[in-house]
Amino acid sequence: MSLASETRRAVDGNPFLVTALRAGVVNYTAAARYLDVDGETDAVATAIRRYAEELPPYETDARDVRVRMERGITPAPIDGAKHETALLAVGGTSFRSDGGELTAIAATGDVDATALGAALGRLESDGIEPIAAGVGEGTMMLVVDDRDGVDALRTVEAALEAVPEA
């Protein structure tokens, strides 16, 4: 395998690096040192720069969505009839409005897995750890601790204003 293809494979194995390359904010020498590619740092940095020139530019788009917050969410095992009233179900757990100590952030409209990824990434940057998250049929739902509800709402709104384009 050539140094260029080995470098591309290593870059592609680090999605954050691909995003940064598309955005034009990478120090190629530092990236070359970071990657586990067998070769001289300068040669790897050159291969990264050439790869970056071929990538589409990083662009974002605001999504047409309505974001709301609902407090009083409770997790519970999925159990038939009560599952039908769930706001979100993941694995064997459903989350429903039942006076609990969690908060759901719901976005309806132009949402998809890319929008969910953008929201999760922004929440991580802000130090907010979702308890559960999902997207389907024009609805995105994230469940957070009640203390994080307002901050999570603002964070998700901001994330959906700048969702990366593929």
TrEMBL record:
<dbReference type="Pfam" id="PF24367">
    <property type="entry name" value="DUF7523"/>
</dbReference>
<protein>
    <submittedName>
        <fullName>Uncharacterized protein</fullName>
    </submittedName>
</protein>
<dbReference type="InterPro" id="IPR055945">
    <property type="entry name" value="DUF7523"/>
</dbReference>
